[in-house]
Amino acid sequence: MSVKKQKILFIVPSMRGGGAERVMMTLLNHLDRSRFDPILALIKKEGTLLDKLPSDLPIIDLNARNARYAIIKIIRLVWSVKPDIVFSTLGYLNLLIALIKIFLPRNIRLIAREGSIPSVQNKREKYPKIFDWLYTNVYYRFDCIIAQSQYMRRDLIENFSIPDEKVIVINNPVDIERVTVLSGEMGYSYPANKINLLAVGRLSHEKGYDLLLQAMKLLGDQYHLTFVGIGPEESRLLKLSEKLELQERVTFIGFQDNPYAWMKNADLMVLSSRYEGFPNVVLEANACGTPVIAFDCPGGTGEIIENGVNGLLVKNGDSVAMADAIQRFRLMTWNEMKIKVNISEKYNINFIMNKYEQLFIAKVKE
């Protein structure tokens, strides 16, 4: 006897290539089609990850400037599709879905995946008090909220009074097989006879790359830093690099469709973020066997890195401590296979997908 498949409507702003979009790409590629029928709705159908989505996936372009201009379209779409579950990600889109819940069919389950640390992220918004109010007074409307880390879960419960039973932790997955295959491709070109450091991520304030450049200033000429990524802080970081006279030791190479070859062949990954939800780049670098030195910032970074096993944690925001840790890294012995096994056991795609699928099944049965 055939089992009725659950219809899940995933709503995402775009597929531009950020951490949240990469997680959604992984989920959509690996969701069990014998039990689930996924549909993807994009606020704007654009982004470098579009061509990496599965060919059997229906994609609906809401063609809106941003989420708030898509409200009516989202309501109409949900009534038309009549999914069992609406799954959304990223804070501002989640808040919008929570706000319009009263206009949606009552039998539909709403699940949100939180993308950041709201108590920190909201301070960066134009109207932080409004975002704090919305998280406190609207977010609880979801049937379930997925936090990427224990830190994020505590933040939602303690700072925004979200009911404890509504927030569960599902870490981000890493597609070990895909990362391994792509990391073997050529295309990287590090300076010879240098200790090559790598930073991968959006060039934005929260990534703390200004602090990383300050740390580079404290290191000797044998160290070279490569930035992979684009973002609004690029011009400022280039100017800071010049001011610190680091032009010969720092290279900005922009967005790379395949950052894994760079990760595999770096001596060390560095993560200087001021805060993180659950950094995919740490999982991916470790999947390549590369250790990571990171600030012990608010978020899930400290839940991934085990000192001396797959990396080092240093005092948050302390450029001197970062430089010191990078120098200590050279004196330590790192086991590439142990790093890979450590990350695979905890975050492999099958393990994490099973958690998602069990959650979907349980929520529809409620």
Question: What is the topological layout?
Answer:
Elements: E1 6-12, H1 19-30, E2 36-42, E3 59-61, H2 71-81, E4 85-89, H3 91-99, E5 109-113, H4 118-121, H5 128-137, E6 144-147, H6 150-160, E7 167-169, H7 176-183, E8 195-200, H8 209-217, E9 223-228, H9 234-243, E10 250-252, H10 260-265, E11 268-271, H11 280-287, E12 292-295, H12 301-304, E13 311-314, H13 319-329, H14 336-347, H15 349-365
Helix pairs in contact: 8-13
List keywords for this structure.
alpha/beta, Rossmann fold, seven-stranded parallel beta sheet, six-stranded parallel beta sheet, globular
Describe the protein in words.
With 366 residues, the chain is of the alpha/beta class. The chain folds into 2 domains: 6-173 and 348-365, Glycogen Phosphorylase B (Rossmann fold); 176-346, Glycogen Phosphorylase B (Rossmann fold), CATH 3.40.50. 39% of the residues lie in helices and 17% in strands. The protein contains 15 helices and 13 strands. It has helices spanning 19-30, 71-81, 91-99, 118-121, 128-137, 150-160, 176-183, 209-217, 234-243, 260-265, 280-287, 301-304, 319-329, 336-347, 349-365, and strands at 6-12, 36-42, 59-61, 85-89, 109-113, 144-147, 167-169, 195-200, 223-228, 250-252, 268-271, 292-295, 311-314. The strands form 2 sheets. A 7-stranded parallel β-sheet has the order 3-2-1-4-5-6-7. It has a 6-stranded parallel β-sheet with strand order 10-9-8-11-12-13, with helices on both faces. Helix 8 (209-217) packs across helix 13. The mean pLDDT is 95.
